[in-house]
Amino acid sequence: MRGLPAGRGTGLGLGGLLILALFAFLTDQNPLDLISQVDPGTAVTSPSAPAAVDDESTRFMKVVLADTEDTWASIFSASGERYRQPRLVIFSEATQSACGLGESAMGPFYCPADEQVYLDLTFFDDLARRFGAPGEFAQAYVVAHEVGHHVQTLTGVSERVHAQRQRVREAEANALSVRQELQADCYAGVWGHAAAQRGMVDVRDVEDGLRAAAAIGDDRLQRQAGRRVVPESFTHGSSEQRVQWFRRGLESGRMDACDTFR
Which helix (H) or strand (E) holds 146? Predict the structure, then answer.
């Protein structure tokens, strides 16, 4: 990687490169000041974690979110549409959302009712330690995936899938959920493609993202829980599927390559 020293010890983390990229598009300012210039409305903190918004991990998430906003604003603008940015909520243990109670055990989630991305930062410790997917790009992939769900809300996909799931049997509803999640993976790859175009991503970063996608496949999670793998029960897709669709978005950089419902 090329950029500001950050993240990997002897290497350079995506966080520093994101800051450098943002700096390149702005006027003469200290790159370190850019973090504090991210719209304060994009990040709020659950009352259960009053100090979370001030830590380094939260600052990194804010910078990643800001960069996804730049990417999607450009894509939407090219189609003559306006991108409405989501808000980021950092919480610890539990928080209330317009979609109900959010808990750490749920992992990161997006709520279409309030257009907010909810993150408990302890999830990333689990991602690294339990699932073997460390690295800043792995974390950025998770944020980009949740933002992908926001894109689905703006395009009407979320509403259509929700309506269809109410009319079919459980196995069919699960299959629709898988398609929706895989599209969000592909959209995360679309953002990764844009980051690569700016010289912010190298092979190690891509490997981090692919490892994260594979780590949270339904088949792997079922095996880790000591359960039999039951594809009909999948709601997010297998490790192979998640890697496939993330890679498709990463390589193409196009929304139209992410039609998982076709």
Answer: helix 136-155
Rounded Cα distance between 158 and 18, Å, is 29
pLDDT digits (tens, 9 = 90+) for 166-204: 999 999 999 999 999 999 999 999 999 998 888 777 767
Give the pTM. Answer: 0.76
Domain coverage including residue 208: 14-258
SS3 199: coil
Q: What are phi and psi for residue 205, nearest 5 degrees?
A: -65, -45
Whether 59 is in a domain gets the answer yes
220-228: long-range pairs with CB below 8 Å, 24+: 220/131, 224/130
Residue 237 lies in a domain: yes
The count of domains in the chain is 1
Domain-located, residue 5: no
Report yes or no on 193 lying in a domain.
Answer: yes
